[in-house]
């Protein structure tokens, strides 16, 4: 079977230098290989491309007709190779949660490079991450899903400024305002944008209503900064992961009445792109998210 591209390259090199010796040297192949490839191309086309003498070669009329097309094919193949190399080296844009700390993202990027994946992280909120993947602006995204459906699970709890001591959990019913406090707004539980998803927000809201909290005591903050500010200035609490609580200098405990968690999965327009992320060690991605692989 003729390797047409290799034969075309040999023909272009030999015809351009007017000699099998010089052409083979330019193509970095043995002269005998260049001769065989040109002969195979002539057999493939069914006509002679070159006339040979003891010292030089010259294009036949057929060879003159074919040379421009053959040269275009070689140039296109070279351009295709260069494009493929650039595409292979282009960073892999991955939409990630905004709650991922810069240091955690840096460790993810470094670890992924050891597995031949050059990640370009794009922090975004839950809805935006899914849209970035659907629209192709990101090759893949780590999207929010119910924890039972995800590849990664991040535990959630309540964090506050004051150390709760030896208690193993914080219960929402302890935030219920007493009769003397009915005029006060009560301590709030802030939900940050990353957890403004039904499988977290709705469960927490239903729990708050079930234990007698006022509707305003479970509120969605515009950002984790706003949520943390409530903890520092008003003795509120923020729903977050243990790692986030450490970063914010807050004391974290699980929610006593409910096992709350974030779940994450990979989505992408192309299955191959999703599989490239899934092929990374689960703990490498899990540490970035603040949890572990399932």
UniProtKB/TrEMBL annotation:
Transmembrane segments: none annotated. InterPro entries: LysR_HTH_N, WH-like_DNA-bd_sf, WH_DNA-bd_sf. It comes from the Bacteria. Residues 3-60 form the HTH lysR-type domain. Keywords: DNA-binding, Transcription, Transcription regulation. SUPFAM superfamilies: Winged helix' DNA-binding domain. Belongs to the LysR transcriptional regulatory family. This is LysR family transcriptional regulator. The lineage of its organism: Bacteria, Bacillati, Actinomycetota, Actinomycetes, Pseudonocardiales.
């Amino acid at each position: 079977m003729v390797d047409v591209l290799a034969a075309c390259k040999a023909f272009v090199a030999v015809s351009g230098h007017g000699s099998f010796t010089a052409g083979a040297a330019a193509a970095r192949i043995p002269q005998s290989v260049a001769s065989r490839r040109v002969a195979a191309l002539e057999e493939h086309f069914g006509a002679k491309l070159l006339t040979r003498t003891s010292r030089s070669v010259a294009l036949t009329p057929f060879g003159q007709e074919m040379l421009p097309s053959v040269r275009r094919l070689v140039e296109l193949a070279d351009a295709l190779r260069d494009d493929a190399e650039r595409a292979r080296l282009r960073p892999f844009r991955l939409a990630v949660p905004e709650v991922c700390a810069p240091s955690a993202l840096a460790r993810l990027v470094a670890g992924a490079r050891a597995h031949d994946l050059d990640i370009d992280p794009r922090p975004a909120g839950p809805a935006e991450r899914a849209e970035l993947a659907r629209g192709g602006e990101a090759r893949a995204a780590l999207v929010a899903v119910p924890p039972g459906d995800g590849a990664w699970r991040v535990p959630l709890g309540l964090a506050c400024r004051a150390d709760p001591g030896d208690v193993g959990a914080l219960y929402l019913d302890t935030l219920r305002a007493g009769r003397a406090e009915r005029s006060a707004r009560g301590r709030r539980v802030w939900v940050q944008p990353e957890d403004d998803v039904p499988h977290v927000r709705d469960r927490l809201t239903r729990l708050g209503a079930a234990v007698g909290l006022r509707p305003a005591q479970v509120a969605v903050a515009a950002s984790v900064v706003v949520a943390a500010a409530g903890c520092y200035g008003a003795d509120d609490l923020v729903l977050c992961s243990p790692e986030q609580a450490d970063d914010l200098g807050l004391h974290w405990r699980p929610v006593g009445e409910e096992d709350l968690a974030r779940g994450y999965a990979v989505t992408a327009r192309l299955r191959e792109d999703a599989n490239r992320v899934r092929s990374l060690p689960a703990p490498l991605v899990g540490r970035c998210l603040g949890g572990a692989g399932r």
